[in-house]
Amino acid sequence: MTTTHPDLVHLLRGPALESFHRGALAIVDAGGAVWRSAGDIDRPVFPRSACKVLQALPLVASGAAEAFGLTDAELALACASHSGEPAHVATAAGVLAKAGVDMQALECGTHWPRDEAVLRALARSGNAASALHNNCSGKHAGFVCVGCLMARAAGREPAEFTRGYLRPDHPVMREVTAALAATTGVDLGQAPMGTDGCGIPTFGVPLRALALAFARVASGQGLSAEHARAAQRLRQAVAASPFHVAGTGRFDTRVMQRLGERVFCKVGAEGVYCAALPGQGLGVAIKLDDGNTARAAEVVMAAVIERLVQLDDDERAFIAALADAPQRNWAGTEVGRLRASDTLRSLLA
Question: Are 201 and 107 in contact (CB under 8 A)?
């Protein structure tokens, strides 16, 4: 990387700057016009879980969601990086049951729940974590549904169309990759390719293109009729059941519980954050250089929402507290603040 990215977030301890977080930001409309940008928005980045709504488009566009009668909560989970809470686990299991399979069909691997209280309770119970606890289990259950519909259409057993769905050349993954290419406008055959944490292919995509994809999700412009319908359905599902896209106390769930369909936002690993803002017809893509997702990227997203989304006084206070967040020690004493930098504020003005 040759571009020096601007400081977007500052951590203050008392009155002094303790840390800063540099990064890049693209805010783009569905025609590709850049409303605001910072840093190098043309360098390919791996979108990681921030692009799950794009990967879920085939679930709806193929007819699988309708064929298996998936609910708002189940569709929201297909877009989720969930915390592994009991309701998440039960919802993922329910999706698989509707498709006529069980968790053995999932190829995402197992990890312990992200939610600490749930993790401790599971450990105390003596039960082991399963693939259903994986934060990507909802997305993978959606992939399995697409494969099961393919099997049904061909008059074959589900396993014949779900086994190995992680492979880039698998029919299910080809549909997922095609949706990512169609929404971003990127030739993924020429893009850097790696393997995501859940095992599926991940592609290096410029922030400009990621923001464009989310502007298209926000507006439906530039998408096929099937993908536009799927994007709208997924946005509505997440707005109806925001708990299922993240979990208790998490930024995405809290913001969408408060703002409903005005914001679709989705965290990704390594400091990537994306959002669709339907009222403005804009897409947002963020990448923090240091990979700080849990704190710094959330502050950037909150500052963007505060500036762009129409809010009442209570909503503005809620979002402002996420863009300028007090930091407390273990005794509950405020010791500093994590806040949007003056540079970011000026950019968004």
Answer: no
Question: Measured between alpha carbons, how far is residue 206 from residues 39, 94, 275 in Å?
Answer: 12, 36, 15
Cβ atoms of 339 and 324 within 8 Å: the answer is: yes
Helix ranges restricted to H, the chain = 52-55, 57-61, 64-67, 72-78, 86-98, 116-125, 137-154, 159-162, 171-184, 207-219, 225-240, 251-259, 298-308, 313-323, 342-348
Task: Report yes or no: 298 and 274 within 8 Å, Cβ to Cβ.
Answer: no
Structure tokens at 323: 């863009």
Instruction: Supply the pTM of this predicted model.
Output: 0.95
Q: Which domains does the chain have, with CATH numbers?
A: 7-348 (3.40.710)
DSSP string across 43-84: SEE--GGGGHHHHTHHHHHTSHHHHTT--HHHHHHHT-----
Q: What is the pLDDT along the chain (349 residues), one digit of tens a residue?
A: 456 899 999 999 999 999 999 999 999 999 999 999 999 999 999 999 999 999 999 999 999 999 999 999 999 999 999 999 999 999 999 999 999 999 999 999 998 888 788 888 888 888 888 999 999 999 999 999 999 999 999 999 999 999 999 999 999 999 999 999 999 999 999 999 999 999 999 999 999 999 999 999 999 999 999 999 999 999 999 999 999 999 999 999 999 999 999 999 999 999 999 999 999 999 999 999 999 877 899 999 999 999 999 999 999 999 999 999 999 999 999 999 999 999 999 999 9
Distance between CA atoms of 298 and 295, rounded to whole angstroms? 5
Q: Which residue has the tokens 């498709």?
A: 99
CB 137 within 8 A of CB 92: yes
Query: What is the spatial distance between Cα 243 and Cα 249, in angstroms, rounded to a whole number?
Result: 9
* DSSP codes, 257-317: HHHGGG-EEEEETTTEEEEEETTTTEEEEEEETT--IIIIIHHHHHHHHHHHS---HHHHH
